[in-house]
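Q: Convert this sequence to C-alpha cells.
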Amino acid sequence: MKAGAFSAPPVFDWLDHFVALGDDGAMRDIGKRRRLSPGEGWLVGIKAVASDADVHGDMWERHPAGEEMLFVLEGRVVLTLADEGGAETDVLLDSRRCTVVPRGVWHRLHIACPGKILFVTPGLGSEHRRVAAQPQRES
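A:
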C-alpha cells in the first residue's frame, strides 16, 4: 500500500464515548453527544455505571425501531422488563453476561454493583416514561 493512501483513523478513550452506525455500514465517532444523523440507525457505547442515575433508572424506555443488546462488562445490573399488562420480570446480568431486550418492550435498569456496560441500541424512536407511571400499552 502506498504511503498516504489513507489517513489514520482517530483514536479515542472508549469509556463514556459513543459511535453511530450508519445504514450504509459507515461508523461515525460522536463522542458524548448522543444525536444521530439521518441514515444512522444504531448507537453503540460503553458507559461507566455507579448508580441508577447513570442509567436513568427512574425511567422506563422502549425501542419500537429494534432490539437493544446490553453487555455487562464489569459489575452487576438488574434489567426489569414490563409486559403489556404491567407485570415485571427481573433479569440479573453479572460481569461478562449480555442479553437482548426485545423490540418494543418497556424496560429499565438498576445498578446492583458498579461497573461498565456496553449497549447497542436503535438510535431513533425511543420512548420514555417515568417509573411512577404505568408503562403505556401498545395499541
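The chain has a mean pLDDT of 88.
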